[in-house]
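Dear colleagues,

As part of the handover before I leave the project, I'm documenting each prediction I ran so the next person doesn't have to rerun anything. This entry is a single chain, and its sequence is reproduced below.
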Amino acid sequence: MHEGRLVASKYRIARFIAAGSMGQVYEAVHVGIGKHVALKVMPHELTSSHELRARFRREMRATGMLESEYIVQVFDAGQDAELGLYLVTEFLVGEDLEARLAREQRLDATTAAAIGYQVARGLAKAHTAGVIHRDLKPGNIFLAERDGGARVAKILDFGVSKRRTPDDMVVDDEEFATAMGITLGTPQYMSPEQAQGRPDLDSRADVWSLAATLYEALSGQSPYEGDSPVEVMMRVVREDPRPLAVVAPWVPAALCEVVHAGLSRNRDERTPDAATFAEALAVAARVPPTPVTIPCPPPDAERFEGEPPSSAGSRVQFFRRDAIRDPSGRTPSSPWKWPA
């Protein structure tokens, strides 16, 4: 599919990676400097959809304006005369959190806290710029491999994000979604106010989504389940999740408290922002003032008291996002790093 084609006179498509509702993703090479990039293309036939076109352009704007180690970096965007709209991002190697949880069911507390800390740092940067993600979930958290075997969690897919100016003016296509009665997001990770379709969402909605993700990563099950998306959203709005300490008694009490503080259905009682959530995770994980290396998963590292053995023996294949995985993977030995 388009291998060898030159896009915007700059990017030579090397291979197809995946297809989704908003187009195709390719590995490409910048012909001028030889840099490998990920190229997301929305073909002309999809641009007739106002919603899809708005989502694609929203991702261009939101991601392009953010610079953080914990957010996928956008290098370029535009429209190719033959292929359509395109978005160029850094080329990531690794796997998303959804794939890892599908394989391992749950993570040890040290690893989950490290991932949550990095994602919270990325969210804090986005919120400072006025960008609310609105669809944070395991599939949009990528565990990228870095030189030397380090890992870093990166937030992906700002396609349903919204951006507000300092005077609280919406500057995306939110009014279109509201007019069409569209509820944007994923039910299991959607805050109560988002599930209710409230137009006054703020950064606390993303804090809730991250807390729901950590609940699942620590326990192996979602805080809210149901037979349909509507049932899940009704439970999110009306019910508190089962205590994490009951569902996963091996999780340290301090970490349970941090997760539940982020899952408060009353957003005025919820952890107020992503930066505070990150700090709370650091305290709960007993992070020293200097950066430390945390094995992921830790084969023999010091664990939280009462924590069960990690799944250190599982076999892992690190791969480019959305690529097909070879089942004959390798055992991870790379560390997570807590930033200073």
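The chain has a mean pLDDT of 77. The two ends are 43 Å apart (CA to CA).

All the best with the project,
I.
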